[in-house]
Amino acid sequence: MIKSLRDLFRQKTPAEKDMDPHLAAAALLVEAALVDGVYVNIESDMIAEILLEAFPLDADRVDELVAEGESLAEEAVDTFQFTRHVKKLPMDQRISIVEGLYRVALSDGERSDVESAFIRHVCSLLYVDDIARAQARQRAEARD
User: Fold this and answer.
1) How many CA atoms lie within 13 A of 26 on its CB side?
2) In CATH, what number does 20-143 get?
3) Residue 108: its pLDDT value, please?
4) C-alpha distances in angstroms, 118 versus 62, 75, 79, 114?
5) What mean pLDDT is predicted for residues 26-46?
6) Nearest to 20 by CA among 66, 88, 119, 90
């Protein structure tokens, strides 16, 4: 009986098993926007802009990813369910997503300790080192 309960809780949904890394990146960006408890249109627009810059996607696909990412992020229980799929991307794209996380965090005009901690945690899960993270943060700050 314990085994059947354990198996029940370990089951993954089809979306978790083979999630599109671009969708996972969108969900991470939405999570970065949500971490301070406020999600505004400027953050949503920023996420779409980041995805357009980071990946060879058209605007319609990006809009779909943002909408799906919002749904996934609102239901998320942890960050790992997204980072494990983003890790499939090449390192330069992962670093681009980290820069995007900082841009989202800065888009409301403030950088909170909670947002910074979230981004550091995501970087550790994506195997992005501290130097690359700091450089991504500096690029994001220079854009604003």
Assistant:
1) 25
2) 1.10.3680.10
3) 78
4) 23, 17, 9, 6
5) 90
6) 88
